[in-house]
């Protein structure tokens, strides 16, 4: 299976280098990859439906417990077949749809990247590697939505989509790690065995919520759904492939996969049922107000995803069977409808449903495909859609809240019926406008794929056993340890479910004839955009950005003194907290306060000179006062047994004064003064810090001191290092490295001064 | 050549004084070191006579010491007493001293003597401007300097 | 500054200060002093000369650009730091000492070379800084 | 009173007093020249203090610091003069 | 005997240092302050250093003291000269009681050349105002 | 036979900085020797790394003075790894500098100062003495001052003034901390301090000292609320300079924090809350700073801050898992951040601006280059399996195990905002059409360069990208390395034993 | 004396920080110098001060015994002084150059790099 996953990646990487060859007609060859993979997975159907599970594992990052482990069971097989099957058709379709496009190679590159990632996602048995693929699908989706990157709307949508799915991805990461943390493994099959441990763990709710977040964003559940209609800016093959058939189902897949691990709890059922229900109905209603074919399909996709989540939420065996069948149903008809829309768009140049009529006259095979797709979508027998719908009602009827849930399901299905017919039938009915008369049927590469898919929909409907054995049963086996046998039938006889189906068809038909898509409706609904999740989210994000400007503007306002006062304030806060919190200044003042006359003189001079430096209005006087401070320092060092320091301090001070003096006369006198308020504020800040430093010193002086090192130097400076001035011995021997670097500092400073003053750049060319 | 040699010896002596080690090696080292330094900083300088000056220097030293003590007392009284009795002013003193060294020595000695301060030498080196605390009579003041310091100094330096 | 008094005085002060700076350098291991202060004093000597005689004159006296002292000094310090590795298989910066005391300098070792490097670097750096400023002032 | 006591209790305080007086001039100014002169005098008297201090502590090494002070204190004065003259000339 | 010498040197030295300090406080103009401090302090410090030389009575200390005294004797007057003339450039006024000012109008204000007699002075100097430290 | 291996990087750096100074004005020589020096440096660093990897912690006692009396150099796994990363970034930036930095700047000792900078970094990583660390820090900051201001025009100088003031202040705080530490413990050797600080009774003072170190290093590593100098200055110097700054300068602060808080101070509840709180605020502040800017280099600058927060928070957790994450993140971040600023440099060379509103069409005009650039960009985001992804696993896990939900939230926030910002950058600079374009006069555009010159621009990016890819795809090695380092960090006895009882 | 010196150290910190926060670049530099001195004094004080006993072995002795000042803080401060000298000279020049290019010594005018551009 690793090869199956890798082949797409390898192809994508190859295309970077040999892409030129794949811009022409030869591009269609790319389709061999999904077709080959499709065959590969078909090959496994037999074994899987017989109950086999194929498992492979490669060590990847064992230190993280991350393995490339793949598991092919009923669930992953279904998805793999969908991915490669729809993929094959989309690859073929693309060759015609984007014929001659100058970036066709890139498009195939992204598609293969996506396909590989998606395969990896559904096949992974390791949660972390699954996450890796999950993120890659988001990224490839980003690139595909933004494929027409000269359009601002495309870029915007790509960004929104990536934003939402990316956020979801991070939640998944959190969830995955948390599950790993709880269960001690990232292997999903091992987690299965610990379902009880997980659901009873205190972190369960957090883990579940994180997983929900991931699934809901990826599968466009309310209120995160809005990225999906935006994603329709992508070329139609992308909408078909990613945004209806496969990627958006990743969330559903996740929920499916984890319902044995996390399911069977109140939280699980309640959340999924309510979010699913809201989503399916909310977006089904939205269908009515759309005129763009892709918009209609997008909302109906969201609605369908809602149904899936809803079913998983119900969580009974019936519900899961319904869900697994509905996944297939949806893939077949929705992908077809998208491809059909693509053809219409490609040929007529518009997707506005109000302008499209009578196209059957020029696009007959397409019309046939559209019609069948609508049937499947509407659940009209003998299509597989009918089977799917029956199963849904079966599931709702046997749930806890049977009436409510069934009513919701009927309403949704009726609206989906309407949507399917509007998209699949309406453009082909009625009069053909003059401007469309010259349209020719496009290459079979474009109209065959939808036709193939709807045909499959009919075949599955007529022989539901195919569905039953190939995936419904295997999936149920995956979900339930003691699963009952699944029996799918087109005809159950006259019962309540049949009645509900009939009701749905009837309501749907009425809706179709009653409601006409108009621009007025679209304008009407757009009035409510301001309370729609999309606008709210964008407003929130704008608000956040506004807040960001405020925050950044406050902290990073450009004034050095502001920065310093924050830093100083921060230090005061910390030191103050530590030093004053338990205020015990039991300091031996007596021993610290002994003083002599000449010391008083120095201290007095120092203090006044410091204050003078700060407050004098003459810069020269300030420099001279610093000279006094330096001199007082030297004397002080001398009194306290540091002759080397005294010498150095004095020489350095003299040089510094010279430097000041040399530079000062090019600089202006002090003129600008900050206002008193700020000065007082800064005064308080600086004095507080100074005060804290004083307290700190006194406290430290109260502590005993360790003199081990000092004693060693006193003992060995002459004996071992042959010097008597211990300070110098430290500088050139004991700690000679310090000195080595210290002189390097001087060298660099001198180089810097030299460069700073001598280098004059003349041209703009400076980076 | 002679000047340099003398400077060299002088520097060597300073070295020996500084180090306080009066060994042959230290003398030689001091000589070599001074030679190197002089070589490094060599610049065309006026030639000076360094010989036959010792007796005059000693004489001059005592003269200067006397002047210094005398004037210091005068200044001390001025400083300590509450009233100011001085008559300060800046006087231009014509110079006989010609070379840089002569002028510099003279100016410095005048400055070191209390009550007087050499402010500057005119650009054409003809006049030394001296600030003094007591200028009772300008000509007398000038003569004092010329007959006292300048004469004795030039005797040593020339 | 155009004053012959300062000029003349500085002509005498320059060698004296330089001599003094070497004195400070050499005695550092035994008494207060060392390469750093020594270097500063030497630098100050040249700065004084520059004040009195003008920068160009001082540069002529120095003959080489003061900046050149820096790599030379650094190289000397560097060599004395790594010579134990190269010659004695001892760790970086280990003091190597001649067995017999040398006249004047006393016991001679790599520490002295190191300090000499410091001395040169300090002269070079201080002069580079100050001369550059004077030139651009 | 021993010599040390004399130096410690009479001489040093007096020299300190001298320093304080000079420092008062430093603060008063009024001209920058007065401050430079005061700074110079501070250092000169400081050399004296060091001399006495080295006697009290019996540490001849301290005289070396006096030497440094004597040698380079002068340079600040030169620098200030240089600055003031140059600035004045350029105006 | 040495102690007596030290007492004398130290006391005299301190008195001269004090003299310089009082002088710099009391003297009415900058030039007088410079004048007083240069010598009194030099003498005072020389004496104090002398006390140290006597105390240690060691050749190396004595030579060091000599060196310091020579340095001071060399640098103090040069410094006084520099700062004094600068003071004049800056236009620091002589004390009111001053009797004579031969320097008046002899500096060329732009080149700082100093003339030796009054005739050489250009007349344009007169209109320039005196300047004090503008930062003050 | 004494083992000198771990100080070889220092010797190479110093040797070449001296050589380069001797050949002051010969630019071609300097370019060549700088690259040669850095190549040798890389070789030596690899040698050091493998040596330490195989033989464990290495100690060199400078001056042959037994610890704690002299200065020791300690090459543990953390130090060796950082030395290696420094060498890699150094080589890349050195090549990049030789083409992107104009000759006028090179003529003023650029390469020599650059070597000094690397010297400082290597020294800081290798030293086992806290005061010596200060000295290395100083050579780093003085070199960075010079590099950030040299040839400075208006905004470069503005940036430099702020950079200087705040970094100088940081040094002062660092020194203050050192003074307090010495006053309390009487020693400077870190291994020795580990024991002596523990026996100090007054824990408040120890905490004060720790806080001072935190502030001192915090300014340098740009944590909230101490980072202001970074966005004010990092975008102003030549890209090569920003690149080495971005990659290594803030990280050396993080390194120092790790070292100090693992060796000398114990992270108590107070410090833990402080570090985690600051980490969260740093992530937040950096993230929204990046969100609100449009100059690419500035955006990257804020992202540096944001990601420093990840590491600071992880350090606060101080579990083995968290530290594994911190170390892994550090490794990843050094390479990627260096690369990003090089990329910004190339973008500047292509478009003469780095404002993303004013540029576009990069993908259309330079598709392969764009894809090359995409790798580090998305590595930064942490798109799996690229390098930025893996360390987050450990960090998040640690946040769960320590029940630090706010930190977890901040990690998610930071990752998300990085994703969004990079995607937006991609959308604006790479996808969008070039807005109206006015050709700068006297500016040599990328397309006008000779092929070899282009290669000099691209090569370093390729080198670093390759390393990033290795970190991502060979994450197992890096993870094992990080685990080993985290082990060494949490078990300081190993270090102490190596230093004090050789 | 320690008490007084501790207060002076605090004062130096306060003065240095206050000066760095002024608008004039020259004051910034003065502040840096003051702060540097404050830090040196802090290290010196915390290394414990000893009067009149420099850490120098006398001519006749081979080891230093009895009371003597701790040489380590002195060596550290010496290093710090030298480094500060390098940094300060660089800062002085930086300021000069900044003034020349930016035509202002007002730090408040130096805020364009924090604007987005
Ligand atoms: Na030194
Ligand atoms: Na040694």
UniProtKB/TrEMBL annotation, chain B:
The chain crosses the membrane at residues 12-41. Signal peptide: none annotated. GO terms for molecular function: monoatomic cation transmembrane transporter activity. The keyword Cell membrane applies. It is found in: Cell membrane. InterPro entries: Cation_antiport_E (IPR002758). It comes from the Bacteria. Keywords: Cell membrane, Membrane, Transmembrane, Transmembrane helix. GO terms for cellular component: plasma membrane. The keyword Iron does not apply. It is a multi-pass membrane protein. Belongs to the CPA3 antiporters (TC 2.A.63) subunit E family. This is Multicomponent Na+:H+ antiporter subunit E.
Automatic annotation (TrEMBL), chain E:
The keyword Transmembrane helix applies. One of its GO terms (molecular function) is sodium:proton antiporter activity. InterPro entries: PhaG_MnhG_YufB (IPR005133). Pfam families: PhaG_MnhG_YufB. Keywords: Membrane, Transmembrane, Transmembrane helix. The chain crosses the membrane at residues 6-28, 40-57, 63-83. Residues 111-136 are annotated as: Disordered. This is Multisubunit sodium/proton antiporter, MrpG subunit. It comes from Psychroflexus salarius. The lineage of its organism: Bacteria, Pseudomonadati, Bacteroidota, Flavobacteriia, Flavobacteriales.
Automatic annotation (TrEMBL), chain F:
Residues 129-418 form the NADH:quinone oxidoreductase/Mrp antiporter transmembrane domain. Pfam families: Proton_antipo_M. The chain crosses the membrane at residues 6-24, 31-49, 69-96, 108-127, 133-152, 164-185, 205-228, 240-258, 270-292, 299-319, 325-348, 369-390, 405-426, 457-475. It is a multi-pass membrane protein. This is Multisubunit sodium/proton antiporter, MrpD subunit. InterPro entries: CPA3_Na-H_Antiporter_D (IPR050586), NADH_UbQ_OxRdtase (IPR003918), ND/Mrp_TM (IPR001750). The lineage of its organism: Bacteria, Pseudomonadati, Bacteroidota, Flavobacteriia, Flavobacteriales. Keywords: Cell membrane, Membrane, Transmembrane, Transmembrane helix. The keyword Transmembrane helix applies.
TrEMBL record, chain G:
GO terms for cellular component: plasma membrane. Signal peptide: none annotated. It is a multi-pass membrane protein. Keywords: Cell membrane, Membrane, Transmembrane, Transmembrane helix. The keyword Metal-binding does not apply. The keyword Cell membrane applies. Its main location: membrane. It comes from the Bacteria. It holds the Pfam family Oxidored_q2. The chain crosses the membrane at residues 6-21, 28-49, 75-95. It is found in: Cell membrane. InterPro entries: CPA3_antiporter_subunitC, NUOK/Mnh_C1-like. Belongs to the CPA3 antiporters (TC 2.A.63) subunit C family. This is Multisubunit sodium/proton antiporter, MrpC subunit.
